[in-house]
Amino acid sequence: MSGHNKWSTIKHKKSAADAKRGKLFTRYTREIITAARSGGDINSNPRLRAAVSAARGVNMPNANIEKAIKRGTGEIEGATYEEYTYEGYGHNGVAIMVEVMTDNKKRTVAEVRHTFSKYGGTMAESGAVSWVFQQKGYIIVEAPEMTEDDAIMAALEAGAEDAEFEDGILSLYTSPSDLHTVSGYLEQNGFTVKTIELTRIPTSTVEADDVAEKLLKLIDKLEDLDDVQKVFANYKISDSILEKLADE
Questions:
Q1: How far apart are CA 40 and CA 47, in angstroms?
Q2: Which fold has domain 3-73?
Q3: Domain spanning 82-131+203-247, CATH class
Q4: Chain Cα centroid distance, residue 213
Q5: In angstroms, rounded to a whole number, what is the distance separating the alpha carbons of residues 30 and 24?
Q6: Which architecture does CATH list for 134-202?
Q7: Residue 138: which of 197, 91, 94 has the closest Cα?
C-alpha cells in the first residue's frame, strides 16, 4: 500500500470522532449537487449513487442529501459548482494532484497556490504530474469478522483488480468502469460498503520518511480548503512513522 492510501485508511478508522465532519458534509454536498446535474435518480446515475453512499457513510442527514439532489437537478436554487484539477510538488519532489469543486475559480486557485507556498510545496503547470497517476475505482468495506484470506477472496470474486485488508477494513481497487458493478455485488452479498469513489493511484512513489511530518501537513492543509474535494500524492512513508504521526 502506498503511503498516501495508508494515511487515508488511518484517518478513515478515526473518522467517527473526526472534528471535521462539517467539512465532509460540505464536500459531499457539492459532489451530490454536481452529480445530480446528470439526473436525480440514484438507480440510473452511478456517480450520484456513489456520492449519496459516501454521504451516508459519514452520517449526513437524509434531508441534507435530498436538498443537495434538488439543487443539482434545479428544483431549488443554489450555487453552481465547476470541477478543476491543480497540480504541484511537495517535499522531496512528491507529485500532488488537487481536485476542487468551486463556484469561484479565481478564489480557489489563489487559496491552493497560497497553501502550496506556505507549507513548502510548489504549484506546477497542468500536465506536470498527472502522468504519475492512474485512475481507479476505490471501495472501502468494513469486514471486522473476516480473516484476511477470506476478505481478499471475496474482493476478487466481486471483480476487484486488487485488494488489501488491515484491521477489519477491506480496500478494493477496480477499473473505473467496473466500480459500480463491484460495489453492487458486495452490497448484494451483505457487505457494508463505506466508500465508493474514483481515485488516482501513483505508478511510482517517492521515499518521504525524512519529510513525513511536513509533507502530511501540506496535504492536510490542502484538504482543509473549503473547495478541495480530494488530494492525491505519490509518497511512500513507513508504517511506523505514519502510525506515530496519527497518534500525535
A1: 10
A2: Arc Repressor Mutant, subunit A (1.10.10)
A3: alpha beta
A4: 20
A5: 10
A6: 2-Layer Sandwich (3.30)
A7: 197
222 Cβ contact partners less than 8 Å away, ≥ 6 residues apart: 96, 98, 112, 115, 116, 228, 231
What does the block give as the cell for 170? 477491506
pTM of the model: 0.82
Question: Please, are residues 121 and 129 in contact by the beta-carbon 8 Å criterion?
Answer: no
The residue among 181, 135, 138 whose CA lies nearest residue 157 is 181
> What are 176-193's pLDDT values in tens digits?
889 888 988 998 888 888
3-state secondary structure of 186: helix
Residue 104's contacts (CB-CB under 8 Å, 6 or more residues apart) are none
Confidence of residue 20 (pLDDT cuts 50, 70, 90): low
pLDDT tens for 92-112 read: 999 999 999 999 999 999 999
